[in-house]
Backbone:
């Protein structure tokens, strides 16, 4: 995309993040909830229970923030020359 369409590297990283943000709640989370598993409620991943855990734990919130910053930094630095 950067060489053919001459898109700046940060725009490519932003598009990657945008598509991940759109596709996860539309495709991945519903399937993880529908697939049978051992999580609370009998699903592979109970997204509603996970959301409650994130809302109620400042430690989990800080870990997620650190994860987001690390992944964003990695993507930006890996795509720049």
Residues:
């Amino acid at each position: 995309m950067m060489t053919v369409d001459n898109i700046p590297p940060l725009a490519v990283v932003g598009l990657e993040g945008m598509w991940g943000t759109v596709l996860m709640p539309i495709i991945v989370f519903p399937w993880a909830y529908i697939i049978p598993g051992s999580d609370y409620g009998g699903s592979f991943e109970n997204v509603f229970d996970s959301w409650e855990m994130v809302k109620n734990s400042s430690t989990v919130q800080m870990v997620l923030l650190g994860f987001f910053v690390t992944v964003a930094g990695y993507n930006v630095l890996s795509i720049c020359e």
